[in-house]
Amino acid sequence: KRLSLDLEMDIKFIRIDRQRKKLPGIVYKHKSKVQKIDFIIKKLQKHPRKVIIIDQSRTFIEELEAEISKQLPDKKTNIVTANTDEEYDPVAVLTLVSPSMSTGISIDEKVSLFVVGFNDNVATPESYEQTLARLRNEKGQNWNTEICILAQERENSVITSFVDSYNSSVKSKLEALDDINMYLKSSFQDDRLEEKLKNRELFLLYNGEEHFYDPDYLKIQSIEQAEHQFTRKIGALAFLKYFENNPHILSGVEIKSIVTMPEPQESDVMAIRQTFHETKERQIEIVKSIEPCRNYAERRRASNTLKEEVQDAESFKDLWLKIL
Question: Which helix (H) or strand (E) segment is 226 a member of?
Fold first, then answer.
C-alpha cells in the first residue's frame, strides 16, 4: 500500500507458492571450534565425492582449510570468500564458502555432503532460509545428500522479548535524532554528526521547527536493528529448534533431529590446536606487513571505505588495523 502511494499508481500483488520437496537435515550441537573442525574432517574422510561447506565466519573457513591441507592434502579446495579471487566452481570436489559469498550461489549440481555452520553473532532471521535454500533439488539430483547443520551449544538462558529489543532500537534512533536536531541548531562542526546526518538525510522530514523520521522508515530500521540484537541474544540453536518444531517455515530443508556432535580424541585435539597456532603465527606476520596510513587524507579514505564498502568482520578488522 505504501509503495502504491509513493509511486502514485495501483500495484497488484500476485503470490505464487512454489512447492519444493524439502531435503532432510540434522543439526549437530558443538561446544568448541576444535570439535567442529574434527567433525568436518571425519565427514570429509567418508565423502570422496562433491562436498560444499558454508560457514558464517571467514576466519573459521581459513582455519578449516589449513587443517584440511594437513590431514587431507590430496583434496583440492575451491575457497570462495571476500579475501580470495576464486568464484564458485560447479565441478570442484570440495568448496569452502564464507557468508559474504554464500547467499549469491545457486548449487544445482549433485552434492554428496552439504555442511552449513551458523554463528550466533552473525546469523539473522533471513540467513537461515537464504543459506539452506542454496542447495537445489528441482530434478531430484540431491535427494540423498547428507545435510549437516552446525550450531554452538549454549547454556539455557532467559529469552528476552522481541518487543523489548524493538523498543530499545526505537529509543536509540530517536536519541540519535535529538542529537541531529541539536546539532543543526548549533554553529559548531562535528564530523561524527555530519556522518549521521549524511546517512539519514533522505529519510528526515521537516515541520518548520524540527526534523523527524518518516514513520515507516523508523519502524523498518528499528525492526532490522532489533532482529540483530534479538538473534544474538537467543543464539542460532534456538532458531533451529524453532524450525524443527515448525517445519513449514524453511523452504529447502526440513530439520529431522538435533543431536550432540561426537567428542574428538585427545590426539586429534592436539593436532588441530597445533594448526591453530601455526595459522595464528602466519596471521601475525600478515598484520605486521600492513602499512599504516601515512597521512590524514589516506586515513580519511580508508575510513570512508570502512563505512561504505566492507561487508564482513574480517575485512573490517584488516582495514581498521591500517587506519590505526
Answer: helix 215-234
Contacts of 68 by beta carbon, 8 Å cutoff, 6+ apart: 41, 44, 75, 77, 94
The whole-angstrom separation of Cα 253 and Cα 259 is 17
Residue 223 makes CB contacts below 8 A (sequence gap 6+) with 166, 169
pLDDT digits (tens, 9 = 90+) for 230-258: 888 888 999 999 999 999 999 899 999 99
Cell 581459513, residue located:
62
Q: Are 252 and 196 in contact (CB under 8 A)?
A: no
264 backbone φψ class: left, alpha, beta (φ>0; ψ -120 to 50): beta
d(CA 57, CA 67): 16
Q: How far apart are CA 28 and CA 258, in angstroms?
A: 6
At 47-65, the pLDDT tens digits run 878 999 999 888 888 899 9
Residue 196 and residue 180 in contact, taking contact as beta carbons nearer than 8 Å = yes
Cβ count within 10 A of residue 118: 26
- Rounded Cα–Cα distance for residues 231 and 162 (Å): 9
CA dist 23 and 148 (Å) reads 11
| Least confidently predicted of 18-22, 175-179, 253-257 | 18-22
Contact 123, 149 (CB under 8 A): no
Q: What stretch of H or E contains 296?
A: helix 296-308
Q: Please name which of 54, 44, 50, 25 lies closest in space to residue 112, comparing C-alpha atoms.
A: 50
| Cβ atoms of residues 174 and 181 within 8 Å | no
Q: What is the rounded distance in angstroms from the CA atom of residue 63 to the CA atom of residue 37?
A: 9
Whole-model pTM: value is 0.76
Contact 101, 82 (CB under 8 A): yes
Give the per-residue pLDDT at 234: 86
Q: What is the pLDDT of residues 185-207, one digit of tens each?
A: 777 767 766 766 666 555 678 78
The owner of cell 523498518 is: 220
